[in-house]
Here is the input.
Amino acid sequence: MKDKLIKEFRNRFHKEPEHFFFCPGRVNLIGEHIDYNGGRVMPCAISLGTYLLVSKNMDKKLRFECLNFPETAVLQLQTSYSKTGKEWFNYPLGVVNELLNEGHGISGLDMLFYGDLPVAAGLSSSASIEVLTAFALNELFALDISRKNIVILAKKVENEFIGVSCGIMDQFAVAMGKREKAILLNCDTLEYEYLPFETGNYMLVIINSNKQRSLSESKYNERFTECGAALKLLKQELDVQHLCDIDPASFELNRHFVNDPVLEKRALHVVSENTRVKDAAVALQLGDLELFGKLMYLSHQSLKDLYEVSGHELDTIVDFCKAYKGCIGARMTGAGFGGCAIALVEKQRLDDFSATLSVFYKERIGYLPEIFGSAISDGVSELKL
Ligand code: GLA
Here is the structure.
């Protein structure tokens, strides 16, 4: 793969690449849609991700090319940029724009990207390319930005340049991931710890529903707004900053302040999911994978019924998992509205699991899912050329 990329770089730019970087994608094990509510989440970086070959140039041009998409961009270096259309290069361009806004100096660049993450599948291809670009430019121009500040910058790009009100989980996970560890991240304080993710006889399986996430950005922003509205109503009585500052008992006592059934459901998901993350962290520390799996199923149920971000395809996958003997837990992962599910499946039954699920899914949905195992990996890094 590296050789092919280098060859492409030479063909496209007629020069040698100077640096090679990789940033993973992520799955979230549990703690969905609570990062923007000040909650705790538990993502981990995966082995699929985005690669970048890059060289500086002297002609003050930013050249963006990607093996996955035909669209390219050549832009004169200027003091700021704005989003143009929906093309992929808006993500790295947003990072360049933010670095310039913060007063960092950069020169012209020739960049070739390649991703092996399925796009729009909820595995954070956008956070991956954002953090990758910020990390690479930080190294190339010795900008001295810490990893944590790279995370914050990449989130700002997504919020302000791209226009999605996402939380910080994805950018954090792809920057800070650690091999064989889950990250327990407090999204309010950004305090975090690594938890052992030891799956023993089981393995983490990713199931791409192959349902493209249609309308996901507007629906996502709608959930964000709904949570803000529920919080405002609860604040009439409670002295809290985020929905996740409310524990289940005090939510029970005060839920009548949210006098809107939809907002009440959203808030109930958030409050209960935050508790599930705490329980899941204990389960991992005790090595109780079965309990962890049960919490995954409960999380999915809540995302389906209360938060309403699942869908027929993801529910079909999770229903299958529940009935399959060698699977102890499954749930949708990421924003939802299509995209991927994750499952804990007995290692020796993986082939059977994949074959049976594929038939089951095709019969009900009409096309096949994509099923693969993934290692839990380190965050963004520079690779040897
Ligand atoms: C997307 C967002 C994250 C998070 C998840 C849902 O991946 O980018 O910030 O909100 O959805 O948990």
Q: What stands out?
A: DSSP finds eleven helices and 14 strands in the chain.
